[in-house]
Structures are given as structure tokens and as C-alpha cells.
Amino acid sequence: MGNVRRAGEVPMLNLSRRDFLSVLGSGLLMAPLSPVLGQNATRLRRPIPRDGHLLPVIGLGTWQAFDIAADAAAHADALATLKLLLQQPQSVIDTSPMYGRAEAVLGRLLGEADAAAAAFVATKVWTRGKAEGRAQIENSFRLLGRTTIDLVQVHNLLDYAAHLETLQALKREGRVRYIGATHYTAAAHAQLESLLAGGVLDFIQINYSLAEREAAARLLPAAAAAGVAVLINRPFAEGEIFRRSRGKPLPDWAGEIGCTSWAQFALKFILGQPAVTCAIPGTRNPKYLADNLAAGQGPLPDAAQCARMAAYYDAL
Known about the structure:
Layout: H1 17-26, H2 30-37, E1 45-47, E2 54-56, E3 60-61, H3 72-85, E4 92-94, H4 102-113, E5 120-125, H5 130-144, E6 149-154, H6 160-172, E7 176-182, H7 189-196, E8 203-207, H8 219-226, E9 229-233, H9 240-245, H10 262-271, E10 278-279, H11 286-293, H12 303-314
């Protein structure tokens, strides 16, 4: 990726995620990573279209990563990850009742790491029936330790119509700030697109990545036109991007967009879509998070560069 680097930076030439994390673990990257770890002005943010509220472009997902039992080491890792993320206030943390113990674990960790309630907390409703949905949402308030939840989403569109009235009422009461709907497959994109026209949704959460690019054709433009924020799940296609790129170098021109690892390459490709508000890769490993957060700094690819990135990935 050439020799493009600022004075004092450790050169990171075509490093895999494993190599990047090995160097990071040695402490050699603490100086160049210091903007990620604490200097908020260097972190890119984008507005929620409804009101202009700014969110950092890299957040955190809790699926699998925070579904942990009484494991002290895992809890310590998750807490360290959360504290690192929240060096940038209003960073998005996404969870769900569907994610096993993740919602409860997140609530306990927020009690330790986020006394000022600076995180932007997103959860979901995932059940059938209006009464059941209301009960589940109330349980989320309890588990998360929040009197107000920033975003509640209808998970995988399950019984969407039944939950919409509840969410609108909670929003009017000020207990929920934003309403959303989610899915993780391209097969649901058409349904999500049709819901955008209703004017009720503030957010959608969808899959989009180098390996799953379908949303760029219609859904992302439709969200932008409707003034709806977009969270991106499956940014690494459940590891497919790392499996495919393992042992392969980044292109020489990756330095033009500030990429030093495949994780950053994948995330910057996503952020090259102006309609994307925030990507939420899941991890409880602080080293992985530091790698991910670095994608939220520096230049982002334009449309031509995104096309070049996709072509390079396809040729691996």
C-alpha cells in the first residue's frame, strides 16, 4: 500500500488482521492509535437524518460476543471493549433479546462503564403479539438499566405491525428516542424498502458488505431519500471476508484511504456509502475493536474507489 504515512507512524504494509493485532498487542501501535483511543475530534461522525444528531460511524454489535456466562475473563474483555468504545460518547451499541444473555450482560457492563449514560443504546423487540412485545420492551429497560432507550427496532420484521403502535407511544412519552426495523438478508430488502414510505421509521438495520452488496442497488438510496438512518450488520459477512482474504495482501493503493488491515478495508468500503450512518461489527476483543475503530478515521472512499475495492475483493 505504498509508503504513505505520517511522521512517527509505524509502517503497516499489507498486514493481515492477525498481523495487525500482533503488532498492536506489542504496544508498538499505541501512538498512532491514540486518536482512536481518546481524541474525539479525529473520529468521523454522521448525522441521524431525522434530527441531525451525530453518531460515530463505527459502533459495536453484541450478537454472540456478549452472550457470555459466569466467565470472569470474558467479562473483563467485554468491559475493556466497552470502555474503549465509549471514549467517543454516543457510540452505538446494538443488542437484542434474541442474543441470549447479551442484553443482560450489556446492562451490567454499562452500569460499570457508562455512569453518565453517554452510549447510544439500541435494542430490539423480537416476539409475536402486542402485549408480548410491550412486556419484552419493558424487560429491556430493566436489563439495560435505562429509563430511556435510544433506539428500539423490530427485529427481523417479526410481527412489525403489532409492535409499531407500542413503539410510537413510547416515543411520544420520551422513553424511546428512535424507532427502527431490522433484517440480515437481502430477501427482506424489498419489504424494508416498502416500509420506508410510511414515514414512521427513523432507522433501518441491514446487511451490507464487500461480500453482500445487494443493498446498494435500491435500499440504501431509498433510505437516503426517505431521510432514514442506516445501521449495518454483518459487515464482515460472518467472517467470510477474513476467510477469503487470509494470507492475501491489501492492494498497494489501500494507503490512499488509510487502510492498514482487511477489517479497515471492509469497513471503509461500507462507509463509502453516504447513506450509511454507522457500522456495528460485533466483538468483545478490545484489540479487534481498536482495529475496527481505525476505519472511522481519515479519508473514506468515493464511488470509484468503492468499485475498485469490490473488484479487488472479487478477484481474491
